[in-house]
Amino acid sequence: MPRLSVIATFYSIESIVAHTLTSLSRAATPDIEFILVDDCSPDGTYDELTRLVERVPNATLLRNEHNLGISATRNLALSRAQGDYICYLDGDDFVAPDHYTSMIAAIEELGVDFVRADHVRVHGRRRQVHRIPHGPRRVPDSPRNGILPVNLSTSIDVPQPWTGIYSRRLHDELDVLRFDESLRTAEDREQMWRLYLAADSFAVVGLTGQFWRREVTSSLTAITDDRQFDFIPSYEKVLAAVRANPDFLRFEPKVARTYLAMLSFHLTKPEYSHALKAELRRRAHQSLTVLWDDAFAEQYALQSPDRRHVLSKVGVPA
C-alpha cells in the first residue's frame, strides 16, 4: 500500500502538461502513487498525458468520457486512492522535488489529521511566497482555532485544498475530503469548512514546495460566466453546516463577513456583463433574504461605507 496518493486533475492545459509531469517525476518515490485524471479536455491535453505518463513512476491515467467538473473529477480519483495520506494537485501547477516527502514527514512528525503548507505564486518569471495565516507553526492545534478571529484573515480563508496533506481517516471515517459535485466553482470553500468543523487536529508548516500558476486562461478563477456565482450556494451550504454546529454563535459571524466580502468582490468585477451583474444581484438578493439574521446585520454594519454602498445594490434586508 502506498503511503501517499497524489490526485492530479487536468483540463485544457496542453502546453504545460510536460512541465507538470516532469515535476511529478522528480518528486516521485516508490511509496507515492499518482492518480492523474483528464476531465475530457477539448485540446491535446490527454494526448500529452498519454505520451508522457510513463515518465511518472506509479502513475495511473484516467479520462472522463464527458466533462464532469473539478469536484466530480477529484472525487473519481479519490475513490481510486490507496494511500495512507492524500494530496491534491491542479494540473496547471507544479511541485518541488522534495515536496511530497517533506509533507509526509511533517504530518507523521506532528501526528495530526492534516497539515497545510505555504505555497509559491507564479506570475510569469516572478515568484512570491504566500503564507498560510496561522500561528504558531509546526504546533498541533484544533482546526476550529484556524477559523477565528472574525475580522482577520485566517487559514480557512485560504481554501486551496492542494496546500495540504490529509490523513485517510478524514475520508474513511469523517467523509470530509469529497467535494460537492453540484458546485462548479467555490467547491473548495465548502469542503474546507466541513474539514475544519469535523477534524480533530491540524498544523501549519512553512514548506514552500507547491507552485501555483496565476496566469492560466483555462483556470476556473479566470472564467467570466455564471459558474462564478456558485460561491452563493457554496456559502449557503457552509452556513447550514455552521448553524448545525454547537459553536455556531462563534463561527457564524465569520461566514457572514466572508460571504459579504465575496459578494462585494463579485459585484465590482469589471469583467462581468451588465446582464451577468443583474443576474448576480438577483441571486444574491434571494439568498440574503433567506439567510439574513443578527450576525449578517452586524457584519454588514461593520463594512466600510464603500462596501455597504456596493452591497446595498442587491437590496440587503438591513
UniProtKB/TrEMBL annotation:
<dbReference type="InterPro" id="IPR001173">
    <property type="entry name" value="Glyco_trans_2-like"/>
</dbReference>
<dbReference type="InterPro" id="IPR029044">
    <property type="entry name" value="Nucleotide-diphossugar_trans"/>
</dbReference>
<keyword id="KW-0808">Transferase</keyword>
<dbReference type="GO" id="GO:0016758">
    <property type="term" value="F:hexosyltransferase activity"/>
</dbReference>
<dbReference type="Pfam" id="PF00535">
    <property type="entry name" value="Glycos_transf_2"/>
</dbReference>
<protein>
    <submittedName>
        <fullName>Glycosyltransferase family 2 protein</fullName>
    </submittedName>
</protein>
<feature type="domain" description="Glycosyltransferase 2-like">
    <location>
        <begin position="5"/>
        <end position="134"/>
    </location>
</feature>
